[in-house]
Amino acid sequence: MTGRSFAPRLGSEGSSTGRALDGPGKECLLDGPDVFFRGVVEGMRCGIVTVDQEGCVLTVNELAREILELDTPVEAGRPVRDVLARHPRLAEVLIDALEMSQLPNRAEMEIRSREDDGRTIGFTISPIVAEGQQHGVALFFKDLTQVERQEEQERLRDRLAALGQMAASLAHEIRNPLASIEVMATLLRRKLARCGAGDDALVSVEKIAAEVARLNQTVTRGLEFARPIAPEMQLRPLAAALDEALAEARARFAGSRVTVERSYEAAAPNVEHDPTLMRQVFTNILVNAYQAVGETGRIEIDVRPVARPERQPGAVEVVIRDDGPGIPPEVRDKIFYPFVTTKEGGSGIGLAMARKIIECHHGMIDVAVGERGGTAFTLRLPVAVDHGQGRG
Ligand SMILES: Nc1ncnc2c1ncn2[C@@H]1O[C@H](COP(=O)(O)OP(=O)(O)O)[C@@H](O)[C@H]1O
Ligand SMILES: [Mg+2]
Description:
Helix content is about 45%, strand content about 20%.
């Protein structure tokens, strides 16, 4: 990216490193070992920080600056505690490592980050030894946050697949007796009417039939939610799915005087997604927003690009905000679970389905409630779905 880091300053300029390269013609081709090694270090697909025996930073490569969110360029020879002021634990580990004989290998650590809740890095520290002498230590690390999220999602997918199978067989077991109950209730109603039973008895039988119908609907929705989905991906602007969803939500609330303000950044790249499924996600959220704001509220929709560290392809973020009363505190932690609803006649499936669809797009969905009401749903979708990214 921007800024320069500095070359390893091992021994006398290029003494030990230079020898390995001293083949005829190689040095002139590569403009000297210093440039060559700087290129190697900069281009490595893991973050590298080297520290000399005095605890001063010698090298910080590009990926290290990105993951640690350091302001570039990093000045050569500054104490590691200053350079890593935002990551004091990491600085201490490096300073301790200068004195240790057993250095951390494949260890993990939580570090702070500006945007997310924090990051997890996986790291190894090696001594820098040249000509029989230790000159400092080198930290090699990777951002595991993405990998951890993926593992979590895989676990969730496995759980959902198992749940789907269970739901399908449960639905079968429930629907058959429900159908019999419905038939029996209808017969009973006829018999009662024929033998001149009172209204009370008829009302009771009708209640049974109504409850049966409701249960049937719940089972059908549950089955719909549990069924695995197979997205058909297309590379398209998310804004298109959003506008279609908005048109659908507007049509459902025709006559309402809700103000909808859209702010779509033109720089937002196309995103690989299933347009029908994503439209369903946005419709579910927008319908909730319309229901929350009432007749004259306000809904804002923002779309913006998000750069990802570690040369990952970027993401697009969508925020749907409303100035309604906010999510009732008693359901705040559970709104993405199926059947959680505070609405008369609500299904409680909308947000559960939204999360399921977002997760099968390898994205994320989150909600924030303002102190004085108002709700904001944030969705992030990676520009391209990365199939099979491994740790290490
Ligand atoms: N924009 C919003 N403002 C306030 N509450 C909301 C909003 N969106 C969702 N909720 C809460 O989350 C619950 C679950 O939403 P959802 O899954 O769509 O089911 P349903 O809309 O059928 O209730 C709602 O019943 C409501 O309590
Ligand atoms: Mg809903």
